[in-house]
């Protein structure tokens, strides 16, 4: 994978840049806004994720010799544009919702302000990161709500592209998962990693007993044994016979889990292994987790459904020009006018209005392009949702790296507490709170 | 993104390696097989994709100082295992379906043979790549069938993780797409790139006419103008007035496309722009494309649906130990026995049986672990599906890079011709041909 993020870009962005450098509009100051028109899949809230790693990718968004050679050889842009790109570095301002924050239809999740030239070419990278990571985080938050206090591990790397898998582990952790199986996510983002053995481990050995014994020798009695390769009842019996009643845990990866979990719990208790934990991992999603709430399950492992957004694999956010300066330097709010994809022009300032700590609405104040004067002071029961993340192109490092991940995870836990009870339900519905636009006179 | 692919690995693989190095089973020769138990989403066929880039990633699967330090510091494996990983290089054999090949339930898409130690740790990387890319390719093939001879461009990068977007463009191209908007896919994989302008281009300007004029000046009359920012009828009129009847194309990104396309075609013809092409790009999937077959549309651009597998975002393939040597060196076929996830142990050799050039079944010959004697010679109307891709760890470079992509695309076009007519339909159904297991005595 190349080191530069600069070609994670749709060709039309460079084509527009090329044309804008010719006709003199490249330097017009612009405000691009990231928002979702709706919450896909009847979700009651969305979770913003990806911001921290996006900011780092924007810092790396530089056109080196290899990138420029490709653009030149393929005649994608002309020589004047090559010169511009050679010196390219984003110098504008970025503000947005903190990573881990909830969002609703129309929430101005990220605002990028700069010249048309410098801002238009970030569209694809911005959306790739935020749409993927937010889709995963939104699904993960629902699973985390369903799991309650039980530990919840992400183990879906094999069901996602190899790099997206790392980002998915990160997004799931921010939204409440407790660990991941993905080692790269552990290294890059400091997320706790977990995992013991697959069916291949048992099948490698001449019998299940050999496999369990070898695992116990290597990892100690506190390990988790996978007991469903052949016959679960026999597997549990062998496990406790070898490990003793202090066996750490057993894992179940098949069968009707409520039934099997109850049977295994009864068997473990009978054998005196009352402290042995039961982890379940078979094709779980938020609904299956919720259905296991009354079952004697101690931990969940989730694969496919979390990394694919549990039916909503992309958040569907868009990156739209909402205001620009005209030739005289005044701001002009702009928006597409077609009926089925219309959006609101103008700069947005967003607040979550609270009543005794519970969110009641998303207020989105619309101004022309000038800095909105709307402040949290004028909305005493409201929380301002946007923070500045870059100014003059300098990115606030607090959002990046492992510290950024921990901050986002903490922020998500706090703001999720603000959701009204109806926001916690898993069924399809309208958003938990309405989005209300207020025009600033 | 780190250069080594070695930590795109689930922790349990290294835990098993650790335990296997202790108990002496690490050196047992094993056969791991990649297959899908079913075709998710009622698909009639699957398309294998990702193989070429997977082989390169396996070559790069090495544990450098940084990777080893992480594993040591986090106490994921012991010192003995660190020593093993320091020298790790896959030395086994890989065979499998050519990239672009069709697959069906049980098809042995990839077979990895080596010691348990060297093969078990590739599981996550193998599945991440094949599951993602095959899901995209399968959806893309259905769209390509629906589009017929009309050009079909992939433009969904913004709806996929930034690296998966590049892989998705590659997979879509292999399965019949003609171009991509993603520049990194153009650079890395040699895929033709396309794209002209977004709504932001029109909104940047003081009026639509200014925007069109600037684009025509920069890109010439043959460019494609996006005409639906304000009013489509007015947009088309402006476009032809400025460009003349030789205008290359117009793009429509909203509205009821069959209706709008017919109106725009009539208007263009009225204006004398009879050769001006109409490209449509609004939330298309295979069904929407099929519904436009009778409409005057010249080209399609597809975003979200292709990069997310059009409802099936992962192919759901698994990587299972199917045979291993015992302590005496004999082969033992192995398989998990639980009821809902059972699979067939033993080495598989697969053939597509044809009748007058049309596929009639997938024959999967099952042997114990020894090289199957089943050959295509004994199946004169059958095509052998597996080719050797690595031996002694040396990867056949023919599958890699841009040449590998072109070969895969060509292969896909050829084998798709073998599908029976019922395999081309888009509705949910059983697989187009049955998978038949034959036990080799």
UniProtKB/TrEMBL annotation, chains A, B:
Pfam families to which the protein is assigned, alphabetical? NAPRTase_N
User: Could you describe the post-translational modifications of this protein?
Assistant: Transiently phosphorylated on a His residue during the reaction cycle. Phosphorylation strongly increases the affinity for substrates and increases the rate of nicotinate D-ribonucleotide production. Dephosphorylation regenerates the low-affinity form of the enzyme, leading to product release.
Q: Which SUPFAM superfamilies match?
A: Nicotinate/Quinolinate PRTase C-terminal domain-like, Nicotinate/Quinolinate PRTase N-terminal domain-like
Q: Which Gene3D superfamilies match?
A: Aldolase class I, nicotinate phosphoribosyltransferase
**Has UniProt tagged this entry with the keyword DNA-binding?**
no
Return one GO MF term.
glycosyltransferase activity
Record's keyword terms, sorted: Glycosyltransferase, Ligase, Phosphoprotein, Pyridine nucleotide biosynthesis, Transferase
Q: Which reaction does it catalyse?
A: 5-phospho-alpha-D-ribose 1-diphosphate + nicotinate + ATP + H2O = nicotinate beta-D-ribonucleotide + ADP + phosphate + diphosphate
Nicotinate phosphoribosyltransferase N-terminal domain segment(s): 7-131
- Which Enzyme Commission numbers does its entry carry? 6.3.4.21
List the InterPro entries hit by this protein, alphabetically. Aldolase_TIM (IPR013785), NAPRTase_N (IPR040727), Nic_PRibTrfase-Fam (IPR007229), Nic_PRibTrfase_pncB (IPR006405), Nicotinate_pribotase-like_C (IPR036068)
- Pathway this chain belongs to: Cofactor biosynthesis; NAD(+) biosynthesis; nicotinate D-ribonucleotide from nicotinate: step 1/1
Family, as annotated: Belongs to the NAPRTase family.
Q: What does this protein do?
A: Catalyzes the first step in the biosynthesis of NAD from nicotinic acid, the ATP-dependent synthesis of beta-nicotinate D-ribonucleotide from nicotinate and 5-phospho-D-ribose 1-phosphate.
Q: Return the protein name.
A: Nicotinate phosphoribosyltransferase
């Amino acid at each position: 994978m190349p080191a530069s993020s600069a070609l994670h870009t749709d060709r039309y962005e460079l084509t527009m840049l090329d044309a804008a450098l010719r006709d003199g509009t490249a330097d017009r100051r612009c405000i691009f806004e990231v928002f979702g028109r709706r919450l896909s899949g009847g979700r009651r809230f969305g979770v913003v994720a990806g911001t921290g790693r996006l900011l780092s990718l924007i810092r790396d968004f530089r056109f080196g010799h290899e990138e420029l050679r490709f653009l030149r050889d393929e005649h994608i842009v002309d020589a004047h544009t090559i010169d511009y790109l050679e010196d390219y570095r984003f110098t504008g301002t970025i503000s947005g919702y903190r990573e881990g924050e909830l969002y609703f239809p129309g929430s101005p999740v990220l605002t990028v302000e700069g010249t048309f030239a410098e801002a238009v070419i970030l569209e694809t990278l911005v959306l790739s990161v935020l749409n993927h990571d937010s889709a995963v985080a939104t699904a993960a938050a629902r699973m985390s709500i369903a799991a309650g206090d039980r530990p919840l591990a992400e183990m879906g790397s094999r069901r996602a592209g190899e790099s997206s898998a790392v980002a998915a582990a990160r997004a799931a952790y921010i939204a409440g998962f407790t660990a991941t199986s993905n080692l790269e996510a552990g290294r890059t983002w400091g997320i706790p990693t977990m995992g013991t053995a697959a069916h291949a481990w048992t099948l490698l050995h001449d019998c299940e007993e050999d496999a369990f014994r070898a695992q116990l020798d290597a990892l100690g009695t506190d390990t988790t044994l996978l007991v469903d390769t052949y016959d679960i009842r026999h597997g549990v019996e062998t496990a406790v016979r070898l490990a003793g009643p202090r066996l750490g845990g057993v894992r179940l990866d098949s069968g009707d889990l409520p039934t099997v979990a109850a049977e295994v719990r009864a068997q473990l208790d009978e054998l005196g292994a009352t402290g042995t934990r039961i982890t379940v991992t078979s094709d779980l999603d938020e609904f299956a987790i919720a259905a296991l709430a009354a079952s004697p399950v101690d931990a969940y492992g989730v694969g496919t459904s979390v990394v694919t957004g549990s039916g909503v694999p992309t958040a569907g956010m868009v990156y739209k020009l909402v205001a620009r300066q005209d030739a005289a330097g005044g701001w002009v709010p702009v928006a597409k006018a077609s009926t089925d994809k219309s959006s609101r022009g103008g700069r947005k300032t967003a607040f979550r209005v609270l009543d005794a700590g519970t969110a009641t609405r998303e207020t989105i104040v619309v101004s022309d392009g000038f800095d909105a004067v709307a402040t949290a002071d004028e909305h005493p029961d409201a929380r301002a949702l946007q923070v500045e993340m870059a100014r003059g192109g300098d990115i606030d490092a607090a959002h990046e790296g492992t510290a950024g991940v921990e901050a986002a995870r903490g922020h998500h836990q706090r703001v999720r507490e603000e959701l009204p009870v109806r926001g916690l339900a898993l069924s399809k519905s309208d958003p938990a709170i309405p989005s209300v636009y207020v025009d600033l006179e």
